[in-house]
């Protein structure tokens, strides 16, 4: 028995890419978005938006609603980070999770969710930010009078 190699042409990277979930070649615009880098460049996931939507329906559907409802009651309608009541816009409740494991940590407001995302869930970054604010506030009060 003889085997011959078959040449499979790969599409140009800027045109198509391979979704790791469904195994299909997709146009680059079908790739699931994953935020923006610190340099302002768009980040993408290695699977398509369609696969992400299917996954979200399975993992977030009713179980997410139940989690959200239970946590809202357990947390007395308050964000545990800023201690303000949930509301709309930046105060809207969001399910917080560890990004590397998707383990749900709790319910936090959109503003605090953005804060953790920008800090990349790094406690040292958040501590440094708090120390910076405290130091800057002290300097401003002494140098320029009370801060308004």
Write the layout of secondary structure elements.
Blueprint lengths: L15 E3 L6 E3 L3 E6 L5 E7 H26 L18 E5 L6 E6 H9 L4 H22 L4
Antiparallel strand pairs: 1-2, 3-4, 5-6
Structural class: alpha+beta
Taking pLDDT < 50 over at least 5 consecutive residues as the criterion, the unreliable ranges are 8-13
Proportion in β-strands: 15-25%
CATH topology label of the largest domain = His-Me finger endonuclease fold
Q: What count of domains describes the coordinates?
A: 2
Largest sheet: 2 strands, antiparallel
Radius of gyration: 22 Å
Structure characterization notes:
This protein has three helices and six strands, in the order ββββαββαα. By secondary structure, the chain is α+β, with helices and mostly antiparallel strands. It folds into two domains: 12-35 and 43-74, no CATH class; 75-143, His-Me finger endonuclease fold (3-Layer(aba) Sandwich), CATH 3.40.1800.10. The strands form three sheets. Strands 1-2 form a two-stranded antiparallel ribbon. A two-stranded antiparallel ribbon has the order 3-4. Residues 8-13 have low confidence and may be disordered.
Keywords:
about 150 residues, alpha+beta, His-Me finger endonuclease fold, 2 domains, two-stranded antiparallel sheet, two-stranded antiparallel ribbon, 3 helices, about 40% helix
Question: Could you give a short description of this structure?
Answer:
With 148 residues, this protein is an alpha+beta fold. Helix content is 39%, strand content 20%. The strands form three sheets. A two-stranded antiparallel ribbon has the order 1-2. The chain has a two-stranded antiparallel ribbon with strand order 3-4. A two-stranded antiparallel ribbon has the order 5-6.
């Amino acid at each position: 028995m003889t085997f011959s190699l078959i040449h499979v042409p790969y599409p140009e990277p800027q045109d198509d890419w391979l979704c790791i979930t469904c195994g299909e070649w997709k146009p680059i615009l079908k790739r699931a978005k994953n935020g923006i880098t610190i340099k302002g460049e768009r980040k993408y996931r290695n699977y398509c938006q369609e696969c992400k939507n299917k996954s979200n329906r399975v993992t977030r559907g009713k179980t997410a609603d139940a989690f959200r409802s239970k946590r809202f009651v357990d947390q007395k309608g308050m964000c545990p980070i800023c201690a303000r009541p949930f509301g709309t816009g930046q105060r809207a409740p969001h399910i917080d999770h560890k990004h590397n494991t998707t383990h749900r940590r709790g319910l936090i407001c959109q503003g605090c969710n953005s804060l953790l995302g920008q800090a990349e869930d790094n406690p040292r970054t958040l501590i440094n930010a708090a120390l910076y604010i405290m130091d800057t506030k002290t300097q401003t009060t002494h140098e320029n009078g009370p801060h308004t």
